[in-house]
Specification:
This protein is an all-beta fold. The chain has no helices and 13 strands. The protein has one domain. The strands form 3 sheets. It has a 6-stranded mixed beta sheet, with no helix packed on it. A hairpin with a 2-residue loop joins strand 5 and strand 6.
């Protein structure tokens, strides 16, 4: 979940790209969605993980309130078997927050060549790390690496706008 002190908004285009804006200013622009299965990388970049549909839904959480969600549907094809992969971006109404979730379906993603502790198995969300031409661009990022990344399930990132 990404939360901030300010108005946070995410927009999704017809190709599945997404942009996060805070107080109307573009902060993050999406990169690829990818996953590692059967010792192969499947990616939206090279269309080995093609986007097949974009849907929207809404709901309510008794603790966090109302939400709107955009779902990016991908088709993972391995050995002729199709698995629907759904990448969800949820925007909350009562709080300035966005939640990302990747559902890799009901099929096991097997590998005989394991990834080491400096690699990930799924890539969502992902963002281009870019510097703007603004003199007051004070955005930053942090990354997790090593063995501890696997025990990390939820990250809260508070961005304070001064």
């Amino acid at each position: 979940m990404i939360g901030c002190w300010g108005n946070i908004n995410v927009s999704v285009d017809e190709k599945g790209g997404y942009i996060i804006r805070i107080n109307g200013k573009e902060w993050l622009r999406s990169s690829r969605t990818a996953l590692y299965a059967d010792n192969t990388w499947f990616s939206s970049d090279d269309n080995s993980l093609p986007l097949t549909n974009i849907t929207a839904t809404q709901g309510n959480d008794r603790n966090l309130g109302n939400w709107n969600e955009t779902r990016l549907h991908y088709d993972l094809v391995r050995n002729g078997i199709h698995t629907e992969i759904i990448a969800s971006i949820r925007q909350w109404s009562q709080i300035s927050a966005i939640t990302f979730y990747l559902d890799n379906g009901d099929r096991i993603l097997t590998n005989t060549v394991p990834l080491d502790t400096n690699q990930v198995r799924t890539v969502f969300p992902s963002f281009h790390i870019e510097k703007t031409n603004d003199d007051d661009d004070q955005r930053g990022y942090f990354a997790f690496a090593g063995e501890n990344v696997f025990s990390l399930y939820l990250v809260f990132l508070n961005i304070s706008l001064v």
